[in-house]
């Protein structure tokens, strides 16, 4: 009977509910595993007493990045951690997009502005400002060129908190074709979803956003699947991935580009894809050595 921890976070303001968690605990137990949902910051947990710790919904990690990454290192030494500590550390900072671009993966063009850098912002197109360490569109906003002063104030706030900012062109096709999320589990495509635009014009950066508006099932195109597979192949320790979500949107040329790789704690959207539950359970059991 493998002992499996599905790792989550404590409920709190601004933290969404992981509706997939109780389903996975129930189905893993039904399959013969000793499975529990466990808080990552619970100091009473003996991680070495588990055969596998699966990061599921540590959705507060970007607010406590240093603390979380220290836990990742400790847990990864005590037991098998999925995804592995090296992958989590790499993926927790969105500067990985630059590495993907260098590897030839089509990504959203991105510039990085660290504290102390000049606040050089676009003057001829809409753009997005967000932190390199963030989730759920926290501290993310969409700006037009005439909102320069507001964007500068956002950068000042972020830099005062020690955050590095990302500046990306706003992909206008998102308003028509949305974002697509391709979910992989156990090395295979599990399912895909599409959602509407998260960032609407005029929404303040510090206002909570709806992270997955209009979510619906999606059948990925061959081009989307090809880009997703290229992105995953470029990940360090790619062969050790248990799970991955690749978020795509169309560039001005109509071709898919990687917006983000979610290799830390992606929402699986199992309530939208209940038929995927057995495949997730089987992959977790295999990873645990069952």
Describe the 3D structure.
There is one protein chain. The protein has 290 residues and is an alpha+beta fold. The chain has helices spanning 20-30, 65-78, 85-91, 96-102, 148-160, 174-177, 222-233, 277-287, and strands at residues 3-8, 34-39, 52-57, 81-82, 111-113, 127-131, 141-143, 165-169, 179-185, 188-195, 216-217, 243-250, 256-262. The strands form 3 sheets. Strands 11-10-9-12-13 form a 5-stranded antiparallel sheet. Strands 2-1-3-4 form a 4-stranded parallel sheet.
Give a short summary of the structure.
The protein is of the alpha+beta class and 290 residues long.
Explain the layout of strands and helices:
Layout lengths: L2 E6 L11 H11 L3 E6 L12 E6 L7 H14 L2 E2 L2 H7 L4 H7 L8 E3 L13 E5 L9 E3 L4 H13 L4 E5 L4 H4 L1 E7 L2 E8 L20 E2 L4 H12 L9 E8 L5 E7 L14 H11 L3
Parallel strand pairs: 1-2, 1-3, 3-4
Antiparallel strand pairs: 5-8, 6-7, 6-8, 9-10, 9-12, 10-11, 12-13
């Amino acid at each position: 009977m493998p002992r499996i921890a599905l790792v989550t976070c404590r409920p709190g303001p601004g933290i969404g509910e992981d509706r997939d968690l109780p389903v996975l605990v129930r189905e893993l137990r039904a399959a013969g595993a000793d499975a529990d949902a466990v808080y990552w910051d619970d100091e009473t947990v003996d991680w070495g007493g588990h055969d596998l710790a699966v990061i599921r919904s540590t959705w507060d990690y970007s607010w406590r990045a240093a603390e979380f990454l220290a836990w990742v290192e400790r847990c990864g030494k005590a037991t098998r951690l999925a995804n592995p500590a090296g992958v989590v550390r790499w993926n927790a900072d969105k500067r990985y997009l630059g590495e993907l671009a260098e590897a030839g993966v089509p990504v959203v063009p991105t510039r990085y502005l660290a504290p102390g850098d000049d606040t050089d912002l676009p003057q001829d197109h809409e753009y997005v400002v967000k932190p390199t360490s963030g989730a759920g569109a926290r501290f993310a906003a969409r700006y037009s060129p005439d909102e320069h002063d507001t964007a500068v104030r956002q950068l000042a706030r972020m830099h005062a908190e020690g955050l590095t900012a990302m500046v990306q062109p706003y992909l206008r096709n998102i308003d028509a074709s949305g974002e697509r999320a391709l979910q992989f589990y156990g090395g295979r495509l599990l399912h895909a979803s599409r959602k509407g635009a998260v960032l609407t014009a005029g929404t303040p950066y510090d206002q909570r956003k709806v992270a997955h508006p209009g979510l619906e099932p999606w059948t990925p195109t061959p081009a989307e699947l090809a880009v997703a597979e290229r992105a995953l192949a470029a990940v360090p320790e790619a062969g050790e991935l248990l799970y991955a979500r690749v978020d795509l949107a169309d560039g001005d040329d109509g071709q898919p580009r990687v917006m983000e790789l979610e290799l830390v704690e992606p929402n699986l959207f199992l309530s939208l894809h209940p038929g995927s539950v057995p495949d997730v359970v089987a992959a977790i059991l295999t990873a645990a050595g069952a």
